[in-house]
Amino acid sequence: MFLLSVLIMGVSTFAVRSEEHMGAAGSCRFHGRHPKTRFQLEGEPLVLRCPQVLHWESTSAHVNVTWHRNDSAAAVPGEEESRVWVQDGALWIVPASRADSGSYICTTRNASYCDKMSVELRVFEKTDASVPLIFYPQIIPLSASGLLVCPDLSEFIGNNADVKIQWYKDSVPLDQDNQKFLSVRGTRLLVNNVSMEDAGYYTCAMPYAHKGRQYNITRNIKLQVKKREEETIPVIISPHQTISASLGSRLTIPCKVFLGAGIHTTTLLWWTANNTRIEDAYHGGRVTEGERQAYSENNENYVEVPLIFDPVRREDLHTDFRCVVRNTMSSQTLRTMVKEAATFSWEIMLAPLSLIVLVLGGIWMHRRYKRRTGKAYGLMELKTGHPDSQSYPSKIKEIK
Ligand SMILES: *[C@@H]1O[C@H](CO)[C@@H](O)[C@H](O)[C@H]1NC(C)=O
Ligand SMILES: *[C@@H]1O[C@H](CO)[C@@H](O)[C@H](O)[C@H]1NC(C)=O
Ligand SMILES: *[C@@H]1O[C@H](CO)[C@@H](O)[C@H](O)[C@H]1NC(C)=O
Ligand SMILES: *[C@@H]1O[C@H](CO)[C@@H](O)[C@H](O)[C@H]1NC(C)=O
Ligand SMILES: *[C@@H]1O[C@H](CO)[C@@H](O)[C@H](O)[C@H]1NC(C)=O
Ligand SMILES: *[C@@H]1O[C@H](CO)[C@@H](O)[C@H](O)[C@H]1NC(C)=O
Predict the structure, then answer these.
(1) Can you tell me which atom of ligand 6 is nearest the CA of 273?
(2) Which of 11, 66, 238, 369 would be 380's cystine partner, CB 3.0–4.6 Å?
(3) Which residue range or ranges hold the Ig-like domain (predicted)?
(4) How many angstroms separate the Cα of 297 from the Cα of each of 294, 300, 301, 303?
């Protein structure tokens, strides 16, 4: 029993060692299955790239790539002898048959490191029903013109500048004399005056010769035409130029921007304090920008970013706050100052006090004048009543 466990420990230590020091020769790190399944039409040439190679190429020049099917230990030969071979690290099958469907594992190694990944391949029979299953989505904005690209052809084209691609829409060939469509720069199709009706399925076909046989490489494209989103000139509609706040209290100043029918995604909106971004001006976070909100009211778009003081301090009264909005059309800045609100405590204290003074003064004067002469009475009313009648009209009436 003891001997057995020693043996197991020894073996596992050796296994760890071999992984660390003999990566290239021994174990190889398996990265699992690539998330994208490759779909292919039967009878057409196929090139399967190893997803790991792109990742390696940036770090190392001398990388060896081998391929094998997951159910076979035999590596695909490196020479172009049979129907299936490896060339420049990619797996070539010319032409693909439905029996080629399955899992392929590519192993990428250099002197010190080794990687593995599996790639799923599904080969379909060439029928109309298979077209919607195998397509490359492409998008063109509704505009004067746009380009479609016949994808995944680089291995077949190589340095060959003279590429002849035939384009089809819904299986109907697109005439080259057409003003609407123009085949340009090898693999591209120029679509003029793009309209919503141009959306749909396109096919591009490139002839390819191999060992004296002529093949077609076709790609299906599902074109989506997107309405162009317009930009408008943004207008800051709030805040006001001065904002009243009490020192020590929390304050939120929203900067609200009107965009009309324009989009908010390209609209930048921010606050500054003394021409400095808020996060740089207040490292402690006493003053911050709140969360950006984009919304619509009556089909008009708005975007809003609040400035939050927690709390307001005296120095804020001397700081130059600005709300800035910018998009590709224009930019606008609105300046706002924080003003100390008239302190209510003083008013509340002074109002009754002045009333008492007034009442007492009134009584005193009333008595004094009454003692002197009854004729002067009316005149006195006028004199005492006038100076304060604007502030406390109701009280004056009561005194009378
Ligand atoms: C092998 O590849 C690894 C990973 O890309 C890299 O870090 C290492 O430098 C390479 N070694 C050689 C000898 O190229
Ligand atoms: C090969 O991959 C397929 C899935 O594509 C899986 O069903 C099968 O079990 C794998 N075979 C082996 C020997 O790993
Ligand atoms: C890559 O393969 C070639 C030929 O098969 C071989 O000479 C070379 O040593 C290999 N390089 C590595 C890093 O395994
Ligand atoms: C573009 O197409 C629209 C309708 O699809 C048409 O009314 C307009 O005249 C066309 N413009 C040009 C320049 O061809
Ligand atoms: C290639 O495909 C196009 C369109 O499907 C067809 O017209 C043409 O005959 C095909 N060529 C070959 C060699 O299969
Ligand atoms: C902004 O400048 C004013 C005057 O120079 C200063 O009183 C205030 O503290 C400054 N505020 C900030 C946040 O730097």
Answers:
(1) 13
(2) 369
(3) 42-122, 132-218, 234-335
(4) 10, 5, 7, 11
